[in-house]
Each structure stands twice: as structure tokens, then as C-alpha cells.
Amino acid sequence: APIDDHIQKAFCGEAAELETYKIEPEFYNCKEGPKWLKTKIYPVGNRNGNYENIIVIHEELTELLNVHSELSTLKQSMKNSDDLRDAFLRIISHELRNPLNWIMGFSDLIRIEKSAEKIEEFTSIISKSGEKLLAIIESLIDISLIEANEIKVNKNGFHLNELLYEIQA
Fold first, then answer.
1. Quick one: which H or E segment has residue 25?
2. pLDDT tens track for 10-22
């Protein structure tokens, strides 16, 4: 209800049951800009118990509500960042573990293998796994450098179909 209705009630006998009217924050378009005001109306009685006056207190909540909104947005952003970080760590953990498992497993097999052919096959697998592991680590370093603005990313347009044909060839 508009403030005028509450003021009218405070001047009339209807305010007798209530000590204070607390009006939810309302939006006002003021000359200085938009404002949110919370109003409290206190009926003031005389010695006879009649309400002849009121005290109206306006509390400006604009800044408080703006900060609250910004904090809420920041909190959601942080939650999204945490979710992305967790997903990223799960993927990286998996990607790093695979080549390491191959390297460790085939290194153990080399120790017990007698055949030169098998040893050569195993060392080839170890070498490829090491290269994959190194590529992942280099990509992680590149990502951290991009995040730190130490590497500039060149954004160039390209035709997706041409790229797919190059990859397929």
C-alpha cells in the first residue's frame, strides 16, 4: 500500500492496535536518480490516548540493496567458477593419469621382458605417452600464461568446413 494510506491510518483510530507501520522498501524515481526507501511510521498519541501526530522516518536503502545485489551476483559467479575449476581438475587428473599409467606399466614390463622386439614396442609406447604427457603440461602452462595476460591470443576467422577437410586428409 502507498505511504499515504499508512499515514491516513496512523491519523485515524485504526492505528491504535499497531505501534509502528513498517513499509517494505519502495522504489522512487527522484531528481537525483532512482532510490529505494524504507519507511517507518510511528503514531504519536496525546495524554488522552488520541493519535494527533505521526513520526515518519525514511531510510534510504539504495546503496545497501545495490551492494546486496552485487554480492549475490559475485557469489553466483564464484560458485560457477568453483564448478568449472572442479570439472577442469577432474578432466586434467584423468588426462595426466592415463599417460603416466602407460609409462609406469610398460616400464615395469621392460624389466621382465627378454624379447628385443617387445622391448622396442614398449619403449615406443612409453615415448608416445611421454610426448602426450609433455603436450598436456605445455597446454596447462599456456593456459596459465593466457590467464595471466602474458600471452596474447590472436583471434582469426576461419572456415570450419576447410579445417575439417584438412583434418580428414
1. strand 21-30
2. 555 554 444 555 6
**Helix, strand or coil, per DSSP, at residue 37:** strand
> How far are the Cα atoms of 28, 40, 52, 143 from residue 20, in angstroms, in the given order?
22, 7, 15, 59
Judge whether 62 and 35 are in contact, CB under 8 Å.
yes
Helix (H, G, I), strand (E, B) or coil at 1: coil
Residue type, 167: I
The three-state DSSP-derived secondary structure of 48-78 is CCCEEEEEEEEEECHHHHHHHHHHHHHHHHH
Q: Which three cell numbers stand for residue 47?
A: 495524554
119: alpha, beta or left? (left if phi > 0; alpha if psi -120 to 50): alpha
Distances in Å between the Cα of 67 and the Cα atoms of 63, 72, 77, 104 are 6, 8, 15, 53
Check residue 18 and give its pLDDT. Answer: 45
Alpha helices in 17-159 (DSSP H): 62-112, 116-147
CA–CA separation, 158 vs 83, rounded Å? 31
